[in-house]
Predict the structure.
Amino acid sequence: MTRVQSGRGGYRNRASLLFGATLIVLAATSLVALAGCASKKKAGMQGTGGNGTNPLGEQTMPGGRNSLEDFQKGTLPGGENGPLTDIHFDFNDFTVRAQDGEILRTDATWLTDHAKARVQVEGHCDERGSEDYNIALGAKRAQAAKDYLVTLGVAAERISTISYGKELPVCPEHEESCWARNRRAHFVAAQ
Amino acid sequence: MEIVGPGSRLSSIALPELKNLAGDDLHEISGAFVDTLSHDLKLSGYLRVIDAQAYIEDSQDSGNELGHFNMADWRSINADFLVKGGVTVKEGEITLEARLFDVAQQRQMMGKRYTGTGDEVARMGRRFADDVLKAITGVEGPFDARLAFVSTRGGRFKEIYTAAIDGQDVFKVTNNPTINLFPGFDHSAHYLLYTSYKTGRPALYLADLQARRELRISSILGVPIEGALSPDGRYIAAAIEHGGQTDLHLLDSAGREIRALTQGGPINVSPAFSPDQTRLAFTSDRSGSPQIYVMDLGGGSEPRRITYSGNYNTNPAFSPVGNRIAYQSREDGRFNIYAIGLDGGDPVHLTEGEGSNESPSWSPDGRYIVFSSTRSGHARLFLMQVETGKIISALLEDKGDDTSPVWSWWLSE
């Protein structure tokens, strides 16, 4: 073997592999240290979470399943409605439509009649647009629905919000009739 | 010799099997090296690999150094370039050497030697491919790097994966039946930041890919929905939702806030650090529609809007030298990939009219962009040559929807 060049693409030998191993240990240690001082949860990389945890805890629901749970079970997200009725939104918009005010008044009445019930408002979007923008837009929709219920007298502490962006469509086709159904705030009640 | 690039006649290269220098049957090692090298050089778009059936010379009966083999055997099959090499195995350790020759000039252009284990042979092929491209084109190739992406290949759930650029060595980072999104590396590709709904609510996770452990990044500021890891791994630019409002915040790598980057009103998402970490590109609808903005992280000045064509521009990605930004722009309900200067100069469209083309990410040498496209039906990752806009190839096996690709910096030694 005559002269060989080295450089970035040069020798890969035992020494460099050992050095790599040292770096790994140091990095892992520093992460543990960070986790400790910031009191952050640490989780293994494989098979963590996602076990169908109900984000509302162990409370039983009178119907109206969480959309992520539906998706995990292989059923249409939010396909099963509970006591509360979904509202829908115009394209790229998060204001409650005038015609949906009546739905929210009925939903608010149910919540007033069931004073111990809590509700999670899910914000959803149609498939157009980017994933992240739609999560932000879905958050605005969920918040708009929550704010509306609050103006109708439902205590804000009883209402939580979550956005799934465009990740959990209730209707899978790539057409406006589906998009209109997917642009929604879905209500999951628990008591 | 003149190097001809894409669009004209490709230079040809011959890649015969390695010589077994220890006299053993090392066919498998040779195959792993030559196949990877061949695949990557084809992906580069600069070279045509001559079919091995045309080769006259037997690697096992010839030497590897100039003067120890018959160059005429290679000239006669119209090879412009030739790679010859050999391999020895001693106590499980593989030593592999390879040389690149200019056939017409009968000259050795470059030679390398690698030592490692059997599962490192494919990477030796990638590194040698990068070196071959440097010797022939003057710029190092981009293949000794990793891809991270989102895929439904395992079922209906979006999970995060990493893989070699050439699609080998696929590693599943997440394994939870929920939603996992927005992977991004630091410069070392040692850490991967992503969003997951694995607890039921979105949060950021900072995974140490080598130690295979991770840190959950939650925030007292609200719900983190997306983050970008700074090249040095010390900072996170996070889109955090609170009360329906999504703003960008600069966090340290444990999730503690350093400062707010945007405040109130519009949606602010898609953070992307410049390679030198002095700037952040992002998407905001403060003008009434989603557009790309760039802010100086040193503070002081207002973010500058850089896109003015189109009414939905998002997913900015800095080029490796930091002078251009690739992004996606919506046209007729689908996205196309564009690149634009930091001053908002003329946007250049890089894809046109075939499916929806999204999530561009530059190769570390700046010559390629990986992106996802529905041009062949469901979403797959494609490799594009930036200069020509030529789509070279789909990457990875055709399984499920592959989206949100990111191309890491070159891996370290």
